[in-house]
Amino acid sequence: MKAELKGTSISLQNSTTLSNTTPQNPLSGALKGCLGSLDGACIEKLLFHCASALESNDITLAQQVMWVLNNYASPLGDTNQRLTSWFLRALISRALRTCPTAMNFKGNNNTVQRRLMSVIELAGYVDLIPWHRFGFCASNNEILKAIEGFHRVHILDFSITRCMQWPTFIDALAKRPEGPPSLRITVPSCRPHVPPFVNISIQEVGQRLGNFAKFRDVPFEFNVLGNTPPILTSSELGNESISFHFESLLSLLNPSVLNLREDEALVINCQNWLRYLSDDIKGRCSPQNLSLRDAFLNIVKSLNPRIMLLVDEDCDLSAPTLTSRITTCFNHLWIPFDALETFLPKSSSQRTEFESDIGQKIENIIGFEGHQRIERLESGMQMSERMRNAGYMSLPFCDETLREVKALLDEHASGWGMKREEGWVPNDMRDHIDVDAN
What we know:
Elements: H1 15-19, H2 26-31, H3 40-55, H4 59-72, H5 79-98, H6 119-128, H7 131-146, E1 152-159, H8 166-174, E2 182-188, H9 202-215, E3 220-225, H10 247-250, H11 255-258, E4 265-271, H12 292-302, E5 307-311, H13 322-343, H14 349-367, H15 380-389, H16 399-412, E6 416-422, E7 431-437
Helix pairs in contact: 3-4, 3-5, 3-13, 4-5, 5-13, 5-14, 7-8, 7-16, 13-14
């Protein structure tokens, strides 16, 4: 996803101090044409130069760039200013960890106290950060197509949105002309420690789904795979020491533990999940010598599912160096900030909370390296290649799915569109829905 950056230009104070730097100073080039005003393109350049300075341990230059960014950033300003404030926070955080004695720039404090969402608030979050809904819509339609004729369906669900996908799916099952099948949903007990966070346990989520399924006369069963961790408290939100231990669940992904049945259509649903599985060489899984990410794809394929769906954002944020991913991250995460600008006023506390959740992603992508950086989103091409290497064959989206996703885009807001990418996986019928924000 790529969006044009639009923002209010501002005047810089004390610009003479910076303009006196030597011509060899990269900051001079970054500010050439920007002194007197600062727009999205200049912000990109400044972020890149700050990242480059941090990677080369040039703290003086990094602090100069931070000073300029700090004069522009505002957690209550326009889209660019709000987004810049989170990038500045992430860069400062990184600098304080790597060079604590040399770093004397603190910047503005835009800390927001995170809290646990209710289920109703989570539904609103999913609506406002729209690509969850796009993925739900496309996946549900393709699942319905894949399970035609089956009387028993088992969905193994890997998602970060606490089963928000399934009420609409249950409703669709209830409307099947031949009557609904029995539905079994199995979810893993662990999840990445990333927003959204909710104030109820996964068992309570299952109970609510069961009540809704009973109301719609759909036979329903809900299972949790593995030991269930306790609900987080508000004080634990954002605690980076709370790890995502998915390795222990890999051994549970087998037919006997999952109680797979021959007359059951197995569906593997993977929504915004693969990016959190380690692909670091330190996370190699023996004896296959595969990364956790590739091992997961191989294991779920061995379960012989009727269909496996992989939904995520098409953006490469997996680059090993900070400079190579900071501009991509800025352009990509501008999109949800702009979506919130469309629906919520600048002073909205709900908007501030949602932006704080996105800000946590920014801090992880920009502020951390090694095992602490869990946000490792790959491009659609890279994910497609992984699946091809694991032996998956792709299927085209049906026309009904394309129509429904297009209708959902049209009702959401202007500036959103859809395109089809052909040929990502060679020698098959791969169709890819790419949602664009312009």
